[in-house]
Design a protein that fits this description.
There is one protein chain. By secondary structure, the protein is an alpha/beta fold. The chain has a single domain, classed as Rossmann fold (3-Layer(aba) Sandwich), CATH 3.40.50. Strands 3-2-1-4-5-6-9 form a seven-stranded parallel beta sheet, sandwiched between helices. The chain has a two-stranded parallel sheet with strand order 7-8. It is globular and about 45 Å long.
Length: 219
């Protein structure tokens, strides 16, 4: 029997691609999606669970069957107030992890984090501090069954409305960023492939920086 994966952020830039990879894989037999909005797809393997409040999980939810959570949910810095940013970045994945492990103690979890995540939790940058906190909590909960991906600039393969000026600028100078080498940028499709691959073959280390992700998907 194939694996069961649960994907969050499946309507987003990276999560939507992770979803398509999971649905297309013959090594995955069941794909559960959790979020506020429907992904708008129909597929024999797809099972949607929706909630307007992320931490109010469905009362009937068979997390015991979930082999691996692929957590792709996130929010751009400055898009929401500070407290809500931390809630999404830290509280959401930790609450889901606790619910998962209560039913599946040997489950696995992959987090879409970001370059600069600070595990000392002392950074003055909100993004770095909160991502570091989330990584620490999830690593403590899952031990050797936790993986975190820290991409640099993520180039959106599909056209989209950029969330702010810095992203508009980054998209324009992407050829330059790519030319600087594998430490600084990755495409949304490459990142999605890496995150999905963790459900099939574990990375060699818990933390994968941008360059590590690119090497991982080639291995």
């Amino acid at each position: 029997m194939g694996k069961t994966v649960l994907i969050t952020g499946a309507t987003g830039m990276v999560g939507s691609q992770v979803l398509l990879l999971a649905l297309a894989s013959d090594q995955v037999s069941r794909v559960m999606v959790y979020g506020r909005r429907s992904v708008g797809l129909q597929h024999a393997k797809l099972e949607e669970h929706l909630s307007p409040d992320f931490t109010k999980f469905p009362t009937v939810w068979d997390l015991a069957q979930v082999d691996h959570i692929l957590f792709c949910l996130g929010v751009y810095t400055g898009a929401v107030k500070r407290d809500f940013f931390r809630e999404i970045t830290v509280d959401y994945p930790v609450a889901l992890a606790q619910a998962h492990l209560a039913q599946r103690p040997n489950g696995l979890f992959t987090l879409l984090s970001g370059a600069g995540a600070d595990r000392s939790e002392k950074s003055r940058m909100m993004f770095a501090e909160d991502k570091g906190t989330a990584e620490n909590e999830l690593s403590r909960l899952y031990a050797t069954n936790f993986y975190t991906f820290r991409p640099g600039y993520i180039y959106p393969v599909e056209k989209r409305k950029e969330p702010n000026f810095s992203y508009k600028l980054s998209r324009k100078i992407y050829p330059l960023l790519k030319g600087l080498g594998p430490k600084y940028s990755i495409t949304s499709h490459q990142l999605a492939q890496g995150i999905f691959n963790t459900a099939l073959k574990a990375p060699d280390q818990e933390i994968s920086e941008n360059e590590d992700i690119l090497q991982y998907i080639r291995s």
